[in-house]
Amino acid sequence: MASQATVAEQTQYLGFVVADEEYAIGILRVREILEYDTITKVPTTPPSIRGVINLRGRVVPVVDLAVKLGLPESEVTKRTCIVVVEVDLEGERTVMGVLADAVSQVIDLPASEVEPPPSFGTRVRVDCLLGMGRAGKKFVLLLDIDKVLSAEELAAAQSVADPANPETREGDSTTGSVDLPS
Question: Is residue 171 part of a domain?
Fold first, then answer.
Protein backbone atom coordinates (compact mmCIF):
# COMPACT_ATOMS: atom_id res chain seq x y z
CA MET A 1 0.00 0.00 0.00
CA ALA A 2 1.47 3.37 -1.07
CA SER A 3 0.17 5.30 1.94
CA GLN A 4 2.04 2.97 4.33
CA ALA A 5 5.30 3.84 2.54
CA THR A 6 4.44 7.53 2.97
CA VAL A 7 3.89 7.00 6.71
CA ALA A 8 7.21 5.16 7.01
CA GLU A 9 9.07 8.09 5.44
CA GLN A 10 7.23 10.82 7.37
CA THR A 11 7.97 11.39 11.05
CA GLN A 12 6.81 14.96 11.70
CA TYR A 13 3.27 16.21 11.31
CA LEU A 14 1.51 19.51 11.90
CA GLY A 15 -1.37 18.94 14.29
CA PHE A 16 -4.49 21.07 14.05
CA VAL A 17 -8.05 21.00 15.35
CA VAL A 18 -11.25 20.94 13.31
CA ALA A 19 -14.62 20.44 15.06
CA ASP A 20 -12.95 19.35 18.33
CA GLU A 21 -11.01 16.55 16.63
CA GLU A 22 -7.24 16.59 16.12
CA TYR A 23 -5.89 16.00 12.64
CA ALA A 24 -2.38 16.15 11.25
CA ILE A 25 -0.70 16.68 7.88
CA GLY A 26 2.87 15.72 7.03
CA ILE A 27 5.05 18.72 7.86
CA LEU A 28 6.76 18.60 4.46
CA ARG A 29 3.41 19.36 2.77
CA VAL A 30 2.82 22.48 4.89
CA ARG A 31 4.10 25.74 3.38
CA GLU A 32 3.00 28.12 6.12
CA ILE A 33 0.37 28.93 8.72
CA LEU A 34 -1.54 32.17 8.39
CA GLU A 35 -3.71 34.04 10.85
CA TYR A 36 -7.29 34.10 9.56
CA ASP A 37 -7.85 37.23 7.53
CA THR A 38 -10.05 38.34 4.65
CA ILE A 39 -11.32 35.52 2.47
CA THR A 40 -13.03 36.49 -0.77
CA LYS A 41 -16.03 34.32 -1.61
CA VAL A 42 -16.18 33.03 -5.17
CA PRO A 43 -19.58 32.15 -6.67
CA THR A 44 -20.24 28.68 -8.12
CA THR A 45 -17.44 26.96 -6.20
CA PRO A 46 -18.21 23.79 -4.19
CA PRO A 47 -19.57 24.43 -0.66
CA SER A 48 -16.34 23.22 0.92
CA ILE A 49 -14.35 26.02 -0.76
CA ARG A 50 -14.66 28.96 1.61
CA GLY A 51 -13.14 31.39 -0.91
CA VAL A 52 -9.70 32.66 -1.88
CA ILE A 53 -6.95 34.64 -0.19
CA ASN A 54 -4.26 36.89 -1.58
CA LEU A 55 -0.95 35.29 -0.64
CA ARG A 56 1.75 37.74 -1.73
CA GLY A 57 -0.09 38.48 -4.97
CA ARG A 58 -1.07 34.88 -5.64
CA VAL A 59 -4.67 33.59 -5.55
CA VAL A 60 -4.92 30.69 -3.08
CA PRO A 61 -8.21 28.80 -2.59
CA VAL A 62 -9.21 27.99 1.01
CA VAL A 63 -11.06 24.76 1.83
CA ASP A 64 -13.19 24.47 4.97
CA LEU A 65 -12.17 21.02 6.16
CA ALA A 66 -15.21 20.79 8.46
CA VAL A 67 -17.58 21.15 5.49
CA LYS A 68 -15.46 18.69 3.51
CA LEU A 69 -15.98 16.18 6.34
CA GLY A 70 -19.76 16.70 6.33
CA LEU A 71 -19.83 18.92 9.42
CA PRO A 72 -21.24 22.43 9.85
CA GLU A 73 -19.15 25.32 8.52
CA SER A 74 -16.27 26.31 10.82
CA GLU A 75 -16.90 29.35 12.98
CA VAL A 76 -14.17 31.96 12.88
CA THR A 77 -12.54 32.63 16.26
CA LYS A 78 -9.34 34.32 17.43
CA ARG A 79 -7.52 30.99 17.00
CA THR A 80 -8.81 30.21 13.50
CA CYS A 81 -6.02 29.94 10.97
CA ILE A 82 -5.29 28.88 7.43
CA VAL A 83 -2.78 26.09 6.89
CA VAL A 84 -1.26 26.60 3.45
CA VAL A 85 -0.41 23.21 1.94
CA GLU A 86 0.94 21.78 -1.29
CA VAL A 87 -1.19 19.09 -2.93
CA ASP A 88 -0.57 16.99 -6.01
CA LEU A 89 -2.90 17.68 -8.91
CA GLU A 90 -2.16 15.22 -11.68
CA GLY A 91 1.53 15.27 -10.83
CA GLU A 92 1.68 19.05 -10.46
CA ARG A 93 2.00 20.82 -7.09
CA THR A 94 -0.91 23.11 -6.27
CA VAL A 95 -1.01 25.47 -3.28
CA MET A 96 -4.23 25.51 -1.26
CA GLY A 97 -5.32 26.72 2.16
CA VAL A 98 -7.09 24.55 4.72
CA LEU A 99 -9.20 26.29 7.35
CA ALA A 100 -8.44 25.03 10.87
CA ASP A 101 -10.06 25.96 14.18
CA ALA A 102 -6.57 26.05 15.72
CA VAL A 103 -3.07 24.73 15.13
CA SER A 104 -1.94 22.60 18.05
CA GLN A 105 1.66 21.47 17.62
CA VAL A 106 4.30 19.78 15.53
CA ILE A 107 4.03 16.08 16.33
CA ASP A 108 6.96 13.65 16.11
CA LEU A 109 5.51 10.27 15.23
CA PRO A 110 7.84 7.41 14.36
CA ALA A 111 6.27 4.73 12.15
CA SER A 112 5.96 2.45 15.21
CA GLU A 113 3.47 4.95 16.73
CA VAL A 114 1.20 4.95 13.66
CA GLU A 115 -1.64 2.45 13.42
CA PRO A 116 -3.48 1.62 10.19
CA PRO A 117 -6.81 3.44 9.91
CA PRO A 118 -9.88 1.53 11.13
CA SER A 119 -12.58 0.63 8.65
CA PHE A 120 -15.20 2.43 10.78
CA GLY A 121 -15.63 4.98 13.53
CA THR A 122 -14.03 8.08 12.00
CA ARG A 123 -15.56 11.09 10.23
CA VAL A 124 -13.03 10.77 7.44
CA ARG A 125 -13.17 8.16 4.69
CA VAL A 126 -10.53 5.54 5.41
CA ASP A 127 -8.86 6.06 2.04
CA CYS A 128 -8.20 9.69 3.07
CA LEU A 129 -6.19 8.61 6.12
CA LEU A 130 -2.53 7.68 6.21
CA GLY A 131 -3.11 6.23 9.65
CA MET A 132 -3.87 6.99 13.28
CA GLY A 133 -1.02 8.44 15.31
CA ARG A 134 -0.85 7.61 19.02
CA ALA A 135 -0.68 10.81 21.03
CA GLY A 136 -0.93 9.93 24.71
CA LYS A 137 -4.34 8.40 25.44
CA LYS A 138 -5.90 9.52 22.17
CA PHE A 139 -5.25 9.29 18.45
CA VAL A 140 -4.52 11.95 15.87
CA LEU A 141 -5.99 11.36 12.41
CA LEU A 142 -3.14 11.55 9.88
CA LEU A 143 -4.63 12.95 6.68
CA ASP A 144 -3.55 12.10 3.16
CA ILE A 145 -4.05 15.67 1.98
CA ASP A 146 -3.97 14.69 -1.71
CA LYS A 147 -7.00 12.43 -1.18
CA VAL A 148 -8.85 14.68 1.28
CA LEU A 149 -8.83 17.53 -1.21
CA SER A 150 -10.66 15.74 -3.98
CA ALA A 151 -10.43 16.33 -7.68
CA GLU A 152 -13.58 18.51 -7.45
CA GLU A 153 -11.92 20.98 -5.05
CA LEU A 154 -8.65 20.85 -6.94
CA ALA A 155 -10.36 21.55 -10.27
CA ALA A 156 -12.36 24.40 -8.74
CA ALA A 157 -9.21 25.72 -7.09
CA GLN A 158 -7.35 25.60 -10.36
CA SER A 159 -10.11 27.51 -12.15
CA VAL A 160 -10.16 30.14 -9.39
CA ALA A 161 -6.37 30.45 -9.43
CA ASP A 162 -6.18 30.69 -13.22
CA PRO A 163 -9.35 32.40 -14.51
CA ALA A 164 -7.63 33.40 -17.77
CA ASN A 165 -7.33 29.78 -18.84
CA PRO A 166 -10.61 28.80 -20.57
CA GLU A 167 -9.88 25.11 -20.02
CA THR A 168 -10.14 25.60 -16.27
CA ARG A 169 -13.41 27.55 -16.34
CA GLU A 170 -16.14 24.94 -16.10
CA GLY A 171 -19.45 26.02 -17.58
CA ASP A 172 -18.14 29.36 -18.85
CA SER A 173 -20.17 30.43 -21.83
CA THR A 174 -19.02 34.05 -22.07
CA THR A 175 -16.97 33.57 -25.21
CA GLY A 176 -19.05 35.89 -27.43
CA SER A 177 -19.89 39.56 -27.15
CA VAL A 178 -23.09 40.81 -25.56
CA ASP A 179 -25.15 43.60 -27.11
CA LEU A 180 -26.38 46.04 -24.50
CA PRO A 181 -29.54 48.04 -25.14
CA SER A 182 -28.84 51.67 -26.10
Answer: no
